[in-house]
Amino acid sequence: MSDINEKCLEVFPGWLRSLDEDTQTIQSILEADGVPVETRKILVGGINYLFKSLDLIPDGIDDIGYLDDAFVLRLAAKNAVEGDLGDLSADLLKKANLLTDDADLIAQLLDGDVYDRLDKYVRDLRKGAARGRTVDEIIEKESVFKEFSAEVASFIKEYTSPGFSKDEKNLIKLKAFLEAKLPK
Question: Using one digit for the tens of pLDDT, what is the confidence trace for 10-21?
Answer without folding.
Answer: 999 999 999 999
